[in-house]
Design brief:
The chain is built from no helices and ten strands. It has strands spanning 2-6, 9-11, 17-24, 33-38, 45-50, 57-59, 67-72, 77-82, 91-97, 108-112. The chain is globular, with a radius of gyration of 13 Å.
């Protein structure tokens, strides 16, 4: 099993980034998928979750209205579109199944700073 996150970087406040997570080694379409993040000095938290078809999505209050989770089952990939980024969004972002069925990938660093 592999979860490979990409798309992070340094962005100014108010900017946007699109993260991708390519999954392999398991039946991607059979799992709810989530994005998580770990900010410096804090525990990892769930940011967004998407159901099997993409028809239902859940967001943490801190990102609601700014982030959008989506998935492409044909590509075994889940995405996180992040708009109106704030310094407090700075973290390493990870994807995994909603129930944390598999080992974490390396994550992708998002830094929001002027």
């Amino acid at each position: 099993v592999q979860l490979v996150e990409s798309g992070g970087g340094l962005v100014q406040p108010g900017g946007s980034l699109r993260l991708s997570c390519a999954a392999s080694g398991f039946t991607f379409s059979a799992y709810y998928m989530s994005w998580y993040r770990r900010a410096p000095g804090k525990e990892r938290e769930v940011v967004a979750t998407i159901n099997l078809t993409g028809g239902t999505r859940w967001y943490a209050d801190s990102v609601k209205g700014r982030f959008t989770i989506s998935r492409d089952n044909a590509k075994s990939t889940v995405y996180l579109q992040m708009n109106s980024l704030k310094p407090e969004d700075t973290a390493v972002y990870y994807c995994n199944t909603r129930d944390l069925n598999y080992a974490w990938g390396q994550g992708t660093q998002v830094t929001v700073s002027s």
